[in-house]
Amino acid sequence: MLKLKPIVVLFLAAMLLLGISRFAVAQDPKPNIVLIMADDLGWMDVGFMGSTYYETPNLDRLAKQGMVFTNAYAAAANCAPSRACLMSGQNTPRHGIYTVGEADRGGAATRKLIPVANNEILPDKIFTLPEALQAAGYNTATIGKWHLGKDPRTQGFDFNIAGNLKGANKHFVPYQNPNIKDGPAGEYLTDRLTTEAIAVIEKQQAKPFFLYLPYYAVHTPIQAPADLIAKYKQKPKGAGQDNATYAAMIESLDTNIGRLLQKLDDLKLTDNTLIIFTSDNGGIRSISRQTPLRAGKGSYYEGGIRVPLIFKWPDRIAAGSKNITPVTNLDYYPTILDILKVKNKNTYSDGQSIWPVLRGQTIPERTLYWHFPIYLQAYDANSDDGRDPLFRTRPGTVMRSGDWKLHEYFEDGALELYNLKEDIGERNNVALQHPEITRQLHQQMRNWRQTTKAAVPTQLNPEYNPKARLPEKKKKDN
């Protein structure tokens, strides 16, 4: 038998242990998780998706370091329901959050149906993503917009700055936000939230952390530092992208994301940090157009629900990759749990893990659904590009199956069918040309509503006047 010197035995044992350690990390990682969410940032409002007017060098760099999804969706077309879907992994019929505030938005005489009631607070019975991460041993923090209850610390976060039930916030001091103290005169909220996020990372880096960074930018009011506004006023304008203040907000957002990424580098945390960047819904069309997509925030045409999306995790997700798989923010929760090998404690999970996709594999084709049984009044009748000038959305359900997208409207039973591969702008309704496809998809949609117990409004509105045409002034900007 070969005899080895003790020093050689120790060396080989050390190498074996090191190999096992590396194997364990590769097979059972527990990364830090940073989820950055912009507010109302449209699909085409960043350089890596094609904008030439807005400048986003840090996000463009992040895109080159990770995987970009070109068919990424929010699970709802405006703020609160989209965030509820993300945090719960459940679609809108499960939690009942469909909009911000009341469900009967818009002129009373222009609404044919009594909409279903709207919920504004994420139910406690739902085991949220941060609660699941807490249970898995993570420190959890949210810095920015919450919009799902009065205090996110009751729904899974150890630490909260600036989060409450409000959907909008002033971008300069005084913030008038009870959950963040005012800084010095002239302080910009996006800068401040990033500073707070960096402090959290520095404090929590000793153990795995989940940092949820939902900026209030670029939500209205459109406000930005004066020097950046002046810069964009001198810049050649793009088609439908020419608002200098909005562009300045986007650049400030990008700069601050760069600050955060640099801090992760400085602390040598980048290699084991999963970063997700996205937006909660589409952009406001009267501020920034998402051509070739139709409409914008609040609409269930593509411009209201398609969003930019990047996943980055060095050595696990291929750098510089692009993926056309249709995904939604319902998928983030099960994907993170899949990575951590943690079981979902919720009764229902409407998303699907896309961890195989992030590793370069595929998942079976599936159908995506959106359900909106209420009303959302127009922003701008002349520029919204919706189905009619009075509403961004009337009650209905929408689905995407492969390249087909079907809209159903409850007021008149109308169906719209689009082939997104040929008509991404949803201009040519081909329901009559493809009656069998329309019938099959419509039946599938009805089955989904039955399975999810999705509420459908049927009661007629006694105030309805079919001749009423003039829209009321908007009540809210959400």
Number of helices: 12
**Tally of strands:** 16
Instruction: Tell me what portion of residues adopts beta-strand conformation.
Output: 5-15%
Main beta sheet strand tally, sense and closure: 8 strands, mixed
Gyration radius (Cα, Å) is 23 Å
Could you name the ranges where pLDDT drops below 50 across 5 or more consecutive residues?
Answer: 8-28, 471-475
Strand order of the largest sheet: 5-4-6-1-7-8-2-9
Topology pattern, helix = H, strand = E: HEHEEHHHEEHEHHEHEEEHHEEEEEEH
Jot down its keywords.
single chain; 478 residues; alpha/beta; 8-stranded mixed sheet; 4-stranded antiparallel sheet; 12 helices; 28% helix; 15% strand; globular
Secondary structure topology:
Blueprint (H helix, E strand, L loop, with lengths): L5 H22 L4 E7 L18 H9 L1 E3 L2 E2 L5 H10 L3 H4 L33 H7 L3 E5 L15 E3 L27 H16 L4 E6 L11 H8 L10 H23 L6 E7 L22 H4 L3 E4 L8 E3 L3 E2 L3 H9 L14 H4 L8 E6 L3 E2 L13 E3 L2 E6 L2 E6 L5 E5 L15 H18 L26
Parallel strand pairs: 1-6, 1-7, 2-9, 3-10, 4-5, 4-6
Antiparallel strand pairs: 2-8, 7-8, 11-14, 12-13, 14-15, 15-16
Helix pairs in contact: 6-8, 7-8
Question: Can you walk me through this structure?
Answer:
With 478 residues, this protein is an alpha/beta fold. It has 12 helices and 16 strands. Strands 5-4-6-1-7-8-2-9 form an 8-stranded mixed beta sheet. It has a 4-stranded antiparallel beta sheet with strand order 11-14-15-16, covered by helices on one side. The protein has a two-stranded parallel ribbon with strand order 3-10. Residues 8-28 and 471-475 have low confidence and may be disordered.
